[in-house]
Amino acid sequence: EKDLPRVFEQMPELRFLDLSWTGIDSLPRSISHLVKLRLLDLDFCRSLRNITGVGALKQLITLDLSATPIEELPVEIGELTQLRRLHMFATVHLKRVASGILPRLCFLEILKMGGSSYAWQSEGLVGEASLQELLGLRRLDDLALVVRSVTDFEFFDQSTSLQSWKDDVTIECRILETSTTMKFEGKFNKWESEFEEEDMVAKILAAASSMVDKYEGFFDKA
After folding, report:
1. Fewest CB atoms within 10 Å of the CB: 15, 68, 100, 188?
2. What is the tally of structural domains in the chain?
3. Which key words tag this protein in UniProt (predicted)?
4. CATH code at 84?
5. What is the per-residue pLDDT across 123-146, written as a single tens digit (0 to 9) for each?
């Protein structure tokens, strides 16, 4: 890891960089030399809290921050105007996404924030991103997020902006207030709910019912 800065200085043509599952706690300053980088994979870097310098990677198309302990999405992410895919699955320490970042990512197609501790709201706190900003991303076709309440989900569902997304858009939305996961398939134009606890109970009851039917049939034959 100590050798990373010198390595990057010698690799200006590098397009893909996989640092996943490494012990880095920040990005080396020399990462700014990777001006042609298209993909940066940092998932499961369990010590990575500081990604200062990522804004220099102007050609970046895919950024994976999944399962990292970042607490705030840095404003310089907004400099990555070519970004198509942003993965932040299981960012369980994420507390803040500043307003004004996402609207600059006008080419964003995939945003994965399932399992994140950041819960979107229809009206964010002062200086924080809101669902309204998210709905402005016209090119999204794959979205996973967490919203705080049923009211926030209803705002999201009823927004006219949602209807402007692609017909094949897929959305997974977890509602913290009810522990419900809602899934939307654009091609069917409808939401389906998943109640995790109820699903488990239903499966147990179905298995029990099947067993009862099986043994009833056995005794009938006897």
Report:
1. 188
2. 1
3. Leucine-rich repeat, Repeat
4. 3.80.10.10
5. 878 899 999 999 889 999 999 999
